[in-house]
Amino acid sequence: MPRTQRNDNFIDKTFTVVADILLKVLPTSQREKQAFSYYRNGMSAQAEGEYAEALQNYYEAMRLEVDAYDRSYILYNIGLIHTSNGEHGRALEYYYQALERNPSLSSALNNIAVIYHYRGEQAIENGQSEISQILFEKAADYWKEAIRLAPTNYIEALNWLKMTGRLTGLAT
Q1: What is d(CA 156, CA 146) in angstroms, rounded to the nearest whole number?
Q2: Burial of 7 (0-12, 13-18, 19+ CB in 10 A)
Q3: Distance (Å, whole) CA 91 – CA 121
Q4: Three-state SS for 151?
Q5: Helices 30-47 and 68-84, packing angle to 10 deg
Q6: Repeats (TPR): which ranges?
Q7: Using alpha carbons only, how large is the chain's radius of gyration in Å?
Q8: Tens digits of per-residue pLDDT, 151-172?
Q9: pTM for this model (two decimals)
């Protein structure tokens, strides 16, 4: 059974119906429609925690999708899966690729910052205070850019920047 027919969630069903209508109505190529269909199936599988299936759909969408902006969201979602699986290095690679195609993707900037912050915390636990400071500075840089792009989305990050004295260079 196709993934789109397995959704039990009202919002997922609504999204699927609207997406199907848009695919039929909008003047897009068959390739673009296929890419979107794989992307949509990937999102659905990801929401259900079916990461292997989601990745298969995202990779297929990447093979078909030519638009850089659309590819950025596919790459971002692949990064999310790797983050969920604890594969932070791989996640960073995908977030960076997403940002190359869409520098305004604040959620990718935020997720990169979260990973650097997490690594900074790990460095502290391992007694590597100098390394932790470098990692925290990287996190701060990415959070500042995310906040610049989406000022109301990252309140916790903004508070962390204020509390740690790293708010310089950001108009608030």
Answers
A1: 12
A2: middle
A3: 18
A4: coil
A5: 20
A6: 35-68, 72-105, 120-153
A7: 18
A8: 999 999 999 999 999 988 766 5
A9: 0.84
CB-based contact 70:35 (threshold 8 Å) = yes
Count of other CB atoms within 10 angstroms of residue 90? 15
Domain residues of the chain, as ranges?
A: 29-94, 104-171
CATH architecture of the domain covering 29-94: Alpha Horseshoe (1.25)
CA distance 103 to 45: 26
Cα atoms in the 13 Å half-sphere on the side-chain side of 32: 14
Q: Which DSSP string do the residues of 115-138 spell out, in sequence order? A: HHHHHHHHHHHTT-HHHHHHHHHH
Number of residues assigned to the chain: 172
Nearest C-alpha neighbor of 91 from the set 99, 41, 123: 99
Segment 69-85, tens digit of pLDDT:
999 999 999 999 999 99
